[in-house]
Amino acid sequence: MPGTKSAGGPQGAVDLKLDLRSPPESAKKPQSKDSSVWNGSPSELPNLQKTKGITAFQTLVHLVKGNMGTGVLGLPLAVKNAGILMGPLSLLALGFIACHCMHILVRCAQRFCHRFNKPFLDYGDTVMHGLEASPSAWLREHAHWGRRMVSFFLVFTQLGFCCVYIVFLADNLKQVVEAVNSTTNNCNNNETVILTPTMDSRLYMLTFLPFLMLLVLIRNLRVLSIFSMLANISMLVSLVIVAQYIAQEIPDPSRLPLIASWKTYSLFFGTAVFSFESIGVVLPLENKMTDARRFPAILTLGMSIITALYIGVGVLGYLRFENDIKASITLNLPNCWLYQSVKLLYIAGILGTYALQFYVPAEIIIPLAVSQVSKRWAPLLDLAIRVTMVCLTCALAILIPRLDLVLSLVGSVSSSALALIIPPLLEITTYYSEGMNPLTIAKDALISILGFVGFVVGTYQALDELIQPGHPTTFSNSTIFVRFPLH
Questions:
Q1: 482 - beta bridge partners?
Q2: CA torsion angle 470 259 326 456 (round to 10)
Q3: What DSSP state is assigned to residue 195?
Q4: Confidence band of 107 (pLDDT split at 50, 70, 90)
Q5: Of 57, 352, 428, 479, which residue is 20 to 30 A from 261 by alpha carbon distance?
Q6: Percentage of the chain lying above the pLDDT 70 cut
Q7: 335 to each of 167, 296, 448, how far by Cα in Å?
């Protein structure tokens, strides 16, 4: 489905415009250069201008912005799950591998664009053509399943992001409300604050449900782009405030373990891959550059900046709060209005971004369902599907109210597939018939195996954390007593 749209994800809210066409018509026309609905992660597509190409600097800004969001807030806990030494080293390695997989995807897409004389190919189409070029007759015959597989993981990822949003909203609003009576304007006091108990965090999730239902009824992308802009501003301001706080008074790190348990490391893997899930941004950005030949260098520079920022936030956040670090670092901020405003800003940004994030799976699922009924019932079915999908994300968030486990699950299942497993296999199917270096094949196989192991172990460990009787299912990201450090 060609077009561009407005969507925002955990890695950053973005603006897009969508040009809807019926499947038969769109199948006959060349793909639009702004095609993105079937891309690997449209939640992170940048604010691209439709007619003019973008400069190298603009591409770099969009790439970095596309990775900034709620995912970075969970990295301090991820570093704790890996260890103060193993965490940053693993983030560095994952950043390098993720960047390499993005380069693979771009090269394969460019090859098929030249072969079929098309201006642009999205993630799904690239995988489909890669399977068609495979030496295996079975893979060639079932090449269309490649596009469907990418679409499945895309829907899973986007709805998973929506679940993350709901848990994040409930956790942060709950903490703000419980501490409102003791919140002051002085952020320098060393005091113990007793939070006022309120309702269960799952009830906070339900209070957001009516607002989310109203938001997803907005189909006008011009209106949704306003939410995207406001979300970007609020998240940027919040991240700056968080960064300046965690950089103050770092305690002695000698008490922290260098390497954590392998069980918690699997949770680190899911959260880290979740944060690096921006592979879908590369094809639209490369396509929109004025000089696309410079894109590989820009991609490498952008991913280097992102990786360095992730390591900095993750390590400093863990050093600052040590074993008290929460699933989102916003939950560790002092109880004064400056830092409470960070939570409120993120709540506003994430609440608006939910509708943009929801737009992606809605545009994949709803047209397929509506095409099966008459025009008379189409509006009612559209409404029913939207309401059902919102309720589904809320129900899943209630069942898994631990933000760290939701991050790990989504990262392990879908992000591993889109960012680590599929691109190396795509390179093999694309170039194998032309002769490949055995070392290249071994490298691609190793990366895919790494992604698959992370997929299996991370998913298993996250589910095991949920079903173990000793683990709490509520209030897991909140505290009853919070001690604010002396500045």
A1: 193
A2: -60
A3: -
A4: very high
A5: 479
A6: 79
A7: 21, 44, 44
| Contact (Cβ atoms closer than 8 angstroms) between residue 405 and residue 425 | no
Name the pLDDT band for 487 (thresholds 50, 70, 90).
very low
Mapping DSSP to helix (H, G, I), strand (E, B) and coil, where does residue 291 land?
coil
- Residue 310 corresponds to which tokens in the numbers above? 């992730």
Look up residue 76 and give its two tokens. 């301090």
d(CA 450, CA 285): 27
The answer to whether residues 279 and 102 touch, using CB atoms and an 8 Å cutoff, is: yes
- Is residue 110 within 8 A of residue 408, CB to CB? The reply is no
DSSP H or E segment with residue 98? helix 86-116
Tokens of 460: 């298993």
**Amino acid type, 21:** R
HSE-CB of 29 using CA atoms within 13 angstroms = 15
The three-class DSSP label of residue 333 is coil
Tokens of residue 93, six digits: 């390695």
Centre a 10 Å sphere on the Cβ of residue 255 and count the other Cβ atoms it contains. Answer: 9
Task: Compute φ and ψ for 177, nearest 5 degrees.
Answer: -65, -40
With beta carbons less than 8 A apart as the criterion, state whether 66 and 14 touch: yes
Question: What integer pLDDT is reported at residue 69 of this predicted model?
Answer: 63
Average pLDDT over residues 140-146: 90
Q: Does residue 424 have a pLDDT over 90?
A: yes
Q: Collapsing DSSP states into helix, strand and coil, what is residue 179? A: helix
Burial of 274 (C-beta count, 10 Å sphere; 0-12/13-18/19+): buried
Which single residue is written with the structure tokens 């394969």? 108
